[in-house]
Amino acid sequence: MNDVHGELVDEVDFTIIRYAQCWEDADVVLEALQVQPGDVCLSIASAGDNTLSLLAKNPSQLVAIDLSASQLACLELRVAAYRQLTHSELLELMGARPSNRRRELYGRLAPDLSPDSRKVWDAQPEAIDIGIGRAGKFEQYLDMIRRFAINLTHSRGQRNDLFLPKSRDERKNFYDDQWDNWRWRWLVKIACSRLVMGRLGRDPRFFKYAEGSVADHIMGMAEHALVDLDPLDNAYLHWIVNGEYGPLLPHALREENFELISANLDRLEWHLADVQSYLDQAPNASIHRFNFSDVFEYLSEEDSDRVFEQVARVGCSGGRLAYWNMLVPRHRPEKLHQSITPMPELSRRLHRAAGTFFYTGFVVEEIV
User: 34-49 pLDDT, tens per residue?
Assistant: First the structure.
């Protein structure tokens, strides 16, 4: 294993489920990558949702990697669910719809899991009971945000009114007059500080290379999500405010994508690996699309440049990579300008359209 892997493993607890859902807008990722039938794709596994969404585009091969066996267990349980459950049963298991039979559903899937993944889930039956999409540290942090930074600062009527149809001007007036009160600003400043988010949501190590104020960034992007974007159309915002998706669903959970994903599951494989180690052993010009999630948040500039160098080697001409910046601004290094080309206009447009509004940037680049 390389130094990047060793550094993170030594400093971060990878035994827990950190993300039980993928909090990166899959529709934006898919539009950015433009996966074509027959493509070979590499994806950071995370909770598995966006990796599975890529299958809906008919790649010939999709490889998911992650440093965390627990995150791979999230992906593996989803794969078993797509194989064996109906769409409505999948939503129950996820916690996206009410259910009193989640343990029964899990019992049908458990025999198909690897011993390592089954050990992860068997050790936490309460995570099955509440829905596997609620089982992560970050989702528990969002529950805290909802209880304190949202419910204590806004009435039920205001929370309901947030999702009523409005023009952009009406949303701006609603935000200024009813949402943006001093209690909201004060509690967001506390709940979204590096200290609180690091301990309760992500991990303190994930802010090692961060720049600027986390809370100030979140406040600005929250206003963008509530004013410039329409809350009615944002499944992720519905979950944050209400603790459920309601009528909306992220891409991988929509009924129209269920059969497409299920039909392509045999094209998916997953490995416990860090991105640099995996790319080191990949053949030249062997991968068309790279879904890198927010992996560069956790890497130094030097280590990030090494990853980009390997992408330039293993990426196919005309392929694309997509990744999110939150507080660590990363882009391909200038020395690779002849190998990887930025797509700034597309990146800005998709970033502004993303329903997951916590990120400072979304980067799309093309391999020459």
Answer: 999 999 999 999 999 9
